[in-house]
Specification:
The chain is an alpha+beta fold. It contains four helices and 13 strands. It is rod-shaped, with a radius of gyration of 43 Å.
């Protein structure tokens, strides 16, 4: 039996960019960084957590629906923080210059994954808590840069990876809503049928009842009448025999059937 799609680890490579609000130049976001500095004007480009949830939620849904060998997907997403260009590729973390696969860390571990040929490095760490709080399917991040404490991370060009696992929250909510609606519909139909009862259909020969529904018949009391007649006849025969014996003893017949 194969592993379900929800149980699989789904690596997604993302190439993400947005225009700097200071100089208008394209700024690459090589990781879920909430603030980076534009290489051209040093302006701080802020990407709120809500925007990251929208962008990575899209990647999560697409990775769940697409086969592992699917090609490149390109999206443009308009957000309050600007228009983001997003490129998705469903491949495991690898070296961008050499295209060689990297040795992966265990989920939940923190460290580096380096290319054996060119020594290019990706930093790996668990998805940050602010992301997992709303997008629990985001498990591990592989990125060429990590978020600094003072928010002064210099923007670098390149892809980053997010490892997803589990059913995307938006799909799970839709499934639960559909199941709840179906259950309510079945309950409403059942309650209506119980209230109305089985309705007979009138045909050429009279009422026709649905399959499995038998119309109620009046009780059959023929056996009771027959039993009463048998008892009466038996009493009459017994009385006649008793009278006959008395005639033999006393020599005088009795008048009438009963005394």
């Amino acid at each position: 039996m194969g592993v379900s799609r929800a149980a699989e680890l789904r690596p997604v490579a993302l190439r993400l960019s947005v225009n700097c609000s200071g100089c208008g130049r394209t700024v690459a976001l090589a990781g879920p960084l909430r603030a980076v500095r534009c290489p051209a004007c040093d302006h701080q480009v802020v990407t709120p957590a809500s925007v990251w949830l929208e962008l990575l939620g899209l990647a999560d849904r697409e990775s769940f629906a697409a086969p592992p060998a699917a090609g490149v997907q390109r999206h443009e997403v308009q957000t309050p923080a600007g228009r983001f260009k997003l490129e998705l590729t469903f491949v495991a973390p690898c070296c961008d210059p050499c295209a060689l696969p990297l040795g992966l860390l265990e989920t939940g571990a923190t460290g580096k994954a380096s290319c054996a040929r060119c020594a290019a490095t990706l930093y790996s760490q668990p998805a940050p808590l602010w992301l997992r709080h709303e997008l629990a399917t985001a498990m591990q991040i592989y990125a060429p840069s990590i978020e600094s404490a003072d928010g002064a991370t210099r923007a670098v060009d390149g892809r980053f990876w997010v490892i997803f696992q589990g059913t995307p929250p938006s799909l799970r909510e839709k499934r639960n809503e559909r199941l709840q609606a179906e259950a309510q519909e079945r309950a409403a139909i059942s309650n209506r049928l119980l209230a109305e009862g089985p309705a007979p259909v009138v045909g050429p020969g009279g009422p026709m009842f649905p399959i499995g529904v038998v119309p109620e018949k009046p009780p059959n009391r023929t056996w009771l009448v027959a039993l009463i007649l048998v008892v009466l006849v038996g009493l009459m025969a017994l009385k006649l025999m008793q009278d006959s014996r008395e005639d033999d003893v006393f020599g005088a017949p009795k008048k009438g059937l009963f005394r």
